[in-house]
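User: I'm curious whether this sequence folds into something compact or stays loose and floppy. Could you predict its structure so I can see for myself?
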Amino acid sequence: ESSGNGSYAISDVLAFLGVRCPPSSEVWKGRHGELPLHQKLVKPIRVNEVSKLTSVSAKVKEGWEHSKRWLFDAILYRLVKHEGPLPRPRLEDGDLEKMLEAGVMEKFAGKPEGSIKIFTVPELHKNRRRPIKWPELINEVCGRETLQPMTVISRAEVRNQVKAGDYAIVVDMKQWFDQLPLDPSIRKYFCFDGGKHGVCALTRLAMGQRQATEVATAVTARLLDFAHDGVTVAYAADNMRFLGSRQAVIAAFRTFLRRCRQVGVQLNELDEKDYNNTAKVEALVTQEYDFLGETYSHQGEEPAMRSTAKTCAKLATTWAERDS
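Assistant: Here's the prediction. I'll summarize afterward.
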C-alpha cells in the first residue's frame, strides 16, 4: 500500500524484504573511527604476464593493451600539474601506518606532480571502514573522453543465464584494485602529505580514479579470455560466476586458476597455494550462491533468486541514514 502520493513508505518496503531498519543511533555508531579499517595484505600482480596470456578474443586483448597504459604510461598524465600544498588524508590514528605496511602506498622522495585525496567511508553492513583514494586532479584533467567503451553484463542477462546449468563456482579477487600496481615512474602523480611520514605516494591503482574500473575489468577479461566449452561465464570487475555442469565448471575453473597463477592473482575464496588442490577446488562447486547482489538456487525444479542479505542490509542502513 502506498503512502497516498504514489510512493511507498520505507518501513513498508523493508518489511516486504524482511529487513529491520535500524534506528539512526545504530547507523551512526562507529562513524568516527570505531569501525576497523578494511585493509588486506595483497601482492601486486605481474602486469607483463597479463599480455602473455593466450587469447581467443582480439577485442578483449586489444582492450587490455589500451587500458594497461594507465598503470605505467606517464604520457597519459602529462597534463597533471599540482600546485600548492599537498592534501592531508582524512584518516584515523594508525590507518596510514597500516596502509604503508600493506605496501599500497610508500614514502616518496621525488618531486610530486600530482595529488590525491584519501579518506574512509563506513560499510555498516560489513562493520568496517573502506579507504578511498580519490585523485581529483587526475580525474579533472583525464576526463571521460579518455575512457574506452566497456561491455558490461546487465542484471537481466545475469538472471537469464541461470538456466545454462545446475552447478556454479563463484569467486572474486582479493582487494582487487590493491593488486594492480602503479609503475614507479607515475607514482609522482599520486602524492599526498603523510604528516610525520613526509610526502607519500600510492603504489597501487586508486579505486577513485576515473579509469580504475576499466583497468580492473580489462585484467579480469583477459584472465577469462579462453575457450570454456559448456560453461557460461559472467563477470563484473572482480566478481565472476562459472555456470554449467559440475565437470564442465570444474574444468573451466581450473584453466582460470592456471591463468591466475601465471599472473599472480589472489582470490578471496582460495589461497594461491591451493590452486592445484583438487579437494579445495571441487569444494567451491555449489548449487546455491550469492552473485552481484542476489542469491541464486539451482536445487529446485526451476532456478530461484532473491536479494542477498548483504543487499537488504545495505538498503536498511542507507534508508536509515537518509531519514536520520
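Summary: Residues 119 and 132 are 5 Å apart (CA to CA). The longest strand covers residues 117-123.
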